[in-house]
């Protein structure tokens, strides 16, 4: 059975909400887990429900869809999103933000399904990643995701730690995270951790420490990320 893709519909028009929900209902791989009727509400449901896909109207009250999605991506960087609007003038801006697709209202079912297939392909690709490739000293290394315990930024270098070896690269943490599978989490501006290796978490002043199996040093966890990390683990 294929994994379920969790979807939020962000749309201030109730009829449009119902139409998109009806399009999604017969599709077994997609599940609507929440609805937002304005941009500020979308920020809350994104934080609390952690969707994989948001279908967002651009012209929403309180906070427009473009700005709302930009904020959602800060806490959910793997998020995929599709924009809907009655106005074609926003298309360039939407694709600048790496939107999966851009749908003009009234939305046709066939066109809606094309956009969903694009999103599904991108999400499946993310889930299937098993090997991280890096360059080090003019050599390519192929590291199994399951062997990576954590990744940290140390001065200008990025260090990838496994139980038996460490690798140095000039790649940024953001670049590496985009090439990893979904069990990796950005806990801090200087750390990515494999949540499968977390044994326990302790509080240390304003910061938290994630203690890792098979690794002697804890990883920092920002207080802004701790709640989301607990949700990922559970």
Task: Kindly name the structural category.
Answer: alpha/beta
Q: Report the β-strand fraction as a percent range.
A: 35-45%
Compute the average pLDDT.
Answer: 89
Percent range of helical residues: 25-40%
According to CATH, what is the class of the largest domain?
Answer: Alpha Beta
Q: What is the CATH-assigned architecture of the largest domain?
A: 3-Layer(aba) Sandwich
Order of helices and strands: EHEHEHEHEHEEEEEHEEEEEH
Rounded to the nearest angstrom, the distance between the terminal CA atoms is 22 Å
By CATH, the superfamily of the largest domain comes out as Response regulator
Give the overall form.
Answer: elongated
The major sheet is characterized as: 5 strands, parallel
Strand order of the largest sheet: 2-1-3-4-5
Number of domains: 2
- Fill in the CATH topology of the largest domain: Rossmann fold
Radius of gyration: 19 Å
Number of strands: 15
Organism: Halalkalibacter wakoensis JCM 9140
Keywords: Phosphoprotein
Pfam family, one: LytTR
GO molecular function, one term: DNA binding
């Amino acid at each position: 059975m294929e994994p379920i893709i969790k979807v939020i519909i962000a749309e201030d028009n109730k009829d449009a909400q119902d139409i998109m929900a009806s399009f999604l209902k017969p599709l077994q791989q997609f599940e609507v887990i929440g609805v937002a009727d304005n941009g500020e509400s979308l920020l809350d449901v994104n934080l609390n429900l952690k969707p994989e896909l948001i279908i967002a109207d651009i012209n929403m009250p309180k906070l427009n869809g473009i700005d709302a999605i930009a904020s959602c991506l800060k806490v959910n960087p793997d998020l995929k999103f599709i924009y809907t609007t009655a106005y074609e003038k926003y298309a360039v801006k939407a694709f600048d933000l790496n939107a999966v697709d851009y749908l003009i209202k009234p939305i046709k079912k066939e066109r809606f399904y094309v956009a969903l297939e694009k999103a599904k392909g991108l999400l499946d690709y993310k889930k299937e990643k098993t090997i991280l490739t890096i360059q080090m000293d003019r050599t390519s290394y192929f590291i199994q995701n399951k062997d990576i315990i954590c990744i940290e930024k140390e001065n200008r270098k990025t260090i990838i730690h496994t139980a038996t070896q460490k690798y140095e690269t000039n790649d940024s943490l953001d670049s590496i995270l985009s090439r990893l599978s979904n069990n990796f989490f950005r806990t801090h501006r200087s750390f990515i951790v494999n949540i499968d290796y977390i044994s326990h978490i302790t509080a240390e002043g304003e910061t938290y420490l994630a203690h890792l199996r098979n690794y002697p040093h804890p990883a920092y966890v920002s207080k802004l990320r701790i709640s989301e990390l607990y949700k990922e683990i559970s």
